[in-house]
Amino acid sequence: MTSLEELRKINARCIHCRACQYAYSGEPDREGEDETYTGMLQGCPAGLYYGWEGYFNSGKQWMARAFLNNELPASKELLEVTEACTTCGMCETQCPNYIDTVHVTEALRAAIIEAGVEPLDKHKIFGERVRNEELRNPYKEPREERTKWLGDNIDVIDKDAKIAYYVGCTAAYRQQQIADHTVSILEKMGVDFTVVSDEVCCGSPILRTGQRDAFKEVMKENLDLFKDYDLVLFSCAGCYKTFRNDYPSHSGEPLPFKVRHAVEYAYDLLEEGKLDIKKEYPKKVTWHDPCHSIRHVGIAIEKEILADSKNWLLDSRKAQKAKEAHYEIPRIVLNSIPGLELVEMYRNRGNSFCCGAGGGVKAQFPDLAVFASKERLKEAAATGAEVLMTSCPFCVTNFNDGIKALKKEEEETGKDLSDVGSKLVVVELLELLDELL
Amino acid sequence: MTQMYNKVTDEVVKKLVAICGDQYVTTSEPLRHSYMARGIMGNEAVLPECIVRPANAEEVSKILVLANENLSPVTPAAGGLSGGFALPAIEPGGIYMDMTRMDKMTVDTENRVMVVEPGVKSGDAWRIFKTKYPDWAPPIPDGAPPAATVLGDAIERGFSLVTGVYGPQADMIMGMEVVLPTGEIFHTGSWALPGAKPFYRWGIGPNPDGLFLGSQGSMGIITKCAIKMVPHPHYKTVVAYGGETWDDIIRPAWEISKHEMGIAERTVMVQGGNYELVMTRWPKENVPVDYEFYKKIGVDQKWMNYECWAWSKEELDETLQGIDKIYKDYEVREKRTLPQQDLHPKQVASRLKKPNKIAIPYSLWQAGFLFITWYCPWLESGEMMEEYCTAMENYGFPPTMWVASIDHARQAIVMPILCYDSTEPGIFDKIREFNLETTKSFLKKGWINYRPDTFVHAPETFSKAKEYYKMLVKFRKVLDPNLILHPGRLAIPWESVSDEPSPLQE
Ligand SMILES: Cc1cc2nc3c(=O)[nH]c(=O)nc-3n(C[C@H](O)[C@H](O)[C@H](O)COP(=O)(O)OP(=O)(O)OC[C@H]3O[C@@H](n4cnc5c(N)ncnc54)[C@H](O)[C@@H]3O)c2cc1C
What we know:
The structure holds two protein chains of two kinds.
Chain A: H1 8-11, E1 22-23, E2 41-42, H2 45-50, H3 57-68, H4 76-83, H5 90-94, H6 101-114, H7 121-131, E3 163-166, H8 169-173, H9 176-188, E4 193-195, H10 204-208, H11 212-226, E5 231-234, H12 237-251, E6 258-261, H13 262-271, E7 284-287, H14 291-307, H15 312-335, E8 341-342, H16 361-364, H17 366-381, E9 387-390, H18 393-413, E10 425-428, H19 429-436
Parallel strand pairs in A: 3-4, 3-5, 5-6, 7-8, 7-9, 9-10
Antiparallel strand pairs in A: 1-2
Helix pairs in contact in A: 3-6, 4-6, 9-19, 11-12, 12-14, 13-15, 14-15, 17-18
Chain B: H1 10-20, E1 25-26, H2 29-34, E2 50-52, H3 57-70, E3 74-77, E4 95-98, E5 105-108, E6 113-116, H4 122-132, E7 136-137, H5 150-155, H6 163-166, E8 173-179, E9 185-187, H7 209-213, E10 221-228, E11 230-231, E12 235-243, H8 246-257, H9 263-266, E13 267-274, H10 276-279, H11 291-296, E14 302-310, H12 313-334, H13 345-352, E15 369-371, E16 374-377, H14 381-394, E17 401-406, E18 411-419, H15 427-444, E19 448-449, H16 457-464, H17 466-479
Parallel strand pairs in B: 2-4, 3-4
Antiparallel strand pairs in B: 1-2, 5-6, 6-10, 7-11, 8-9, 8-10, 12-14, 13-14, 13-17, 15-18, 16-18, 16-19, 17-18
Helix pairs in contact in B: 1-3, 15-16
The structure holds flavin-adenine dinucleotide (FAD).
């Protein structure tokens, strides 16, 4: 179900109870360190930032309903409110009515654009660039330079192998070190894999921002390109989620190949006894769950089980357990690192607070993105950790931008903001794994 | 229905901005729609013309003065969790006052009173009590999700976590700060005396609280309330007993509660229902609908839960044994079989959890639900539920029924949960018809709706209680000469909610 009309019945389950505004909305007695981090607490970045009901999921569900019932016309104003959401899915975790909140938001964005409203200016630029066959990426980089980051390591390009590494636009053009580390890990593990030179943008930024026609084009291209592989690996949480969750629902077909994020792949190897980390990392680390590869995939696992169930009363627990098992994957990997001390932030796993970069927010609503980043940095600092670890290029960038903002504030005011995160060091888990292997 | 209000003009919006600040006033069409709700307790709601988010009583007062000047209707909302009931009911929608910015709370453990503004939500109050005042609990609604407010529930005279002992939430009020529709700000109870604490509800004169607590914003806007907080002992559990008929659960509960002291005092919550209460929390297509399945998993046809709080294990055990003895004696005397349910610790923990999300999934059965709430003398509740269930089935709704004791089983709150598909054409008309039919019958029996629907329960009730209605109109006209506050549950002005002859004309 991808169109807003198809989601009508699901949207109609919303009674407007507003439980989705709270992280841990079902855990009033959750123990925490202090009043700030105990029990249930607000967890929607946009709602907290703007304050109006329409920026919370609970309000968006009712705007979507009004739109569906022709009570609310498509307009730029409606698009602006709808787009100011990181689509992090915190709300979806909370909803006991299993409303696909993020699908509804994304479908509403698409429906507004399909009704003739122009995408918001920054989003429109992504769309145009991805649509452009000379580029096929949102960064306006030449398509033929997509594998330039590999330097001399051209042997891995378009090689005959059963495993492909889908690099994604950000690692190919902006954060090449993530691609380098991923390739290096795979090589160290002796994995026979290839990088496909013709890969195109996964379509995530344009799907999230409602530009579905262009999304479908790139989805088809990628599906065609990768259809004969057994396994496709990812280092980008957003690309992974798009392939894993969105391609099947938008193409109407199950994926013809298996998909794994590189962290999940490391976990698989650990489980099979093929990965043994010996080097120490004697640091206190807190882990930020990227919404795309952790929460969204966990929720999808839960809903896939329920979709096959005739008795939700009995099977909902099993589905929830499978979701929770997915949330443990990065923790198992981190705990396999000698010397690493993992300290959890209060809001974690399905209740994790978003870094603030997703859903097209970073480009279009930079103030909201930095607000959310700072809120999360504060929570990370409260753990006493020195390292904030994650595995998503967007989370890394947005946290670093948050830290920059805090440092600037320190310079301007002379205050020490280390208790809200100014001294945190952001580390990508793949980078660390590469160093330790 | 006649129109007697003016639209909110640009001029009025400018003045609202001058009162609250640009940031806290909007006429944005999408944002106005984002506050809508049709369900929970009210299906009928119209779109507000403007949303304001005042910061304090002074701003509330100025907004009301302005609304009077322009004859714009005003609807206050706290958490908004009464659904359609927290929205304008009639055209034009007027000014919607979102009170959530006013979220201060102070706690006085010596006098056992907390003072809250309308925006203090249950989830936040619980968190603060948990960390700062662990031996006390805020009086939050028992089964409402975290965004419901302490004050909103008192205004609704709600069912709090200790209603079985303390009575409805409104009974716990110790004093209020009220802004009258004409803008005056005053306090009730001992609080009325400058410098006095809110320690005595009846304060310095006749107490007008009931005008504001029973009118859901139709007589004045409450900007603060002092409310009793409750002791929170940590020896807690839930026991449940099953049965086949309503009397099987109603009568033993009455025997347990009626003594009021001893075990009754520690049984803070008595609530029950039928197996459909379990079934309709899941999608109709994805759950067995045959009772046999529920029987197998240990769900009785009907059951009553007893939530007990005690200061020690001995006290708790004594309470549970006392309850069990009453049940055993009752079984022998009445020749009934009323088994104690074997609750899994997870089931107990889930029932003890406050605030919770337990009642949200009634919307999962199809897509939408409505709580309809009635009060009757406790021992008559079986008859009411029987009649309700039959009517629900006649109308094609599953007979999902919930009942709870108010103040030691003096009264019952009987609440059918209508589970329906809100996308089905004509469904709201069908619900209205159902409501009308049951309302007519119940009023004849002397039972009353306690959260009256603007268009059904209120006019039906007042067309019977004419003298009371006339008195209410008198009060309302004194407090709100231009009738700018929304009609809420009072059917004032009558013409705005009913085409039937007004009780005032007779
Ligand atoms: C799933 C679910 C479960 C529920 N369970 C319970 C339960 O166990 N017990 C229970 O009692 N209720 C329950 N409710 C109903 C509802 O949550 C309560 O009535 C709620 O506490 C109301 O509080 P609120 O802050 O949401 O009030 P609102 O809905 O915002 O307001 C309630 C009414 O008061 C008026 N009002 C709001 N603020 C003011 C003000 N400052 N001055 C004057 N009038 C005002 C509004 O116009 C409205 O008519 C439940 C609701 C849901 C959705």
